[in-house]
Write a structure and sequence with these properties.
Distance between the termini: 37 Å
Number of strands: 14
Structural class: alpha/beta
Strand order of the largest sheet: 1-2-3-4-5-6
Number of helices: 9
Bound molecules: zinc ion
Order of helices and strands: EEEHEHHEEEEEEEEHEHHEHHH
Shape: globular
Largest sheet: 6 strands, mixed
């Protein structure tokens, strides 16, 4: 399977997938039509399926125009009236697309929004705005409990899983992570690597879960460095993972971004 990374707007990524010798393709979260049309044209593909993770405009904004050009396109998404899905999917559903030889598993990852889902293929997760490299999405609709649960599901996937997130936020996220773990060698190495990639006009995602577990403060709510940093910052004892996550997220929302 081929995965084409389509940059859009200022920092979004759309993901276009297709098999060799098959003109049919699937795109995840088409927030705009034109960048996708260009990629389809360049690769001589037609669009058969759309996978939607959540309702935000930069993830669904291209659907209406794409539907006019590809009227029979299947649109997979969660049950949410804000999302124009033609095929509703829910947690644990296994879906076989005609355009790909692989099946994907739907994972409920509510938190960033109330109906956010992710699509998991063999060692690849398309997680929308739930997890970013070295960061996670803001909680616009869900609770800290919801998001902790969602991130725990991702944390427990095979370590070699590649995280296909929807934004290039990595360098900014590393800046925050360094406030909590200034001496984390993996974090400092990742910062160097990302700076090099971006300087060359390349991308820092997808990233490997194995590495995220070493650097991402929003997956490290059970790590002593993170617990100590948050306890010190808020000058209080924190006794459970959800609260470690909550205070880490609040710290970033209120004092960093
Ligand atoms: Zn979003």
């Amino acid at each position: 399977m081929n995965i084409i990374q389509i940059p859009a707007f200022t920092d979004n990524y759309f993901w276009l997938m297709h098999e060799n010798n098959n003109k049919h393709s699937v795109v995840v979260d088409p927030g705009a039509c034109n960048p996708i049309l260009k990629a389809l044209d360049k690769n001589n593909l037609i669009l058969s399926d759309i996978l939607i993770t959540h309702h935000h405009a930069d993830h669904i904004g291209g659907i209406n125009e794409l539907k006019k050009i590809f009227p029979s396109v299947n649109i997979y998404g969660p049950a949410d009236k804000r999302i124009p899905a033609t095929i509703i999917v829910k947690d644990d559903d296994i879906v076989k697309l005609n355009s790909l030889n692989e099946e994907f598993q739907v994972i409920d990852v509510r938190g960033h929004t109330n109906s956010h889902i992710a699509y998991y293929f063999k060692n690849k997760i398309f997680c929308g705005d739930t997890l970013f490299s070295c960061g996670c999405g803001r909680l616009f609709e869900g609770t800290y409990n919801d998001m902790h649960k969602a991130l725990t599901k991702i944390k427990n996937l095979p370590k070699e899983t590649m995280i296909y997130c929807a934004h290039e936020y990595t360098l900014d996220n590393i800046g925050f992570a360094k406030l909590l773990e200034p001496n984390n060698i993996h974090l400092l190495e990742r910062e160097k690597e990302v700076k090099k990639l971006l300087k060359k006009g390349l991308y820092s995602v997808p990233s490997k879960l194995e590495n995220e577990l070493k650097i991402n403060p929003f997956l490290r709510f059970d790590n002593n460095n993170i617990i100590n940093a948050v306890e010190h910052h808020y000058n209080k004892k924190i006794t459970n993972e959800v609260d470690v996550f909550k205070y880490t997220r609040e710290w970033k929302d209120r004092e960093y971004d």
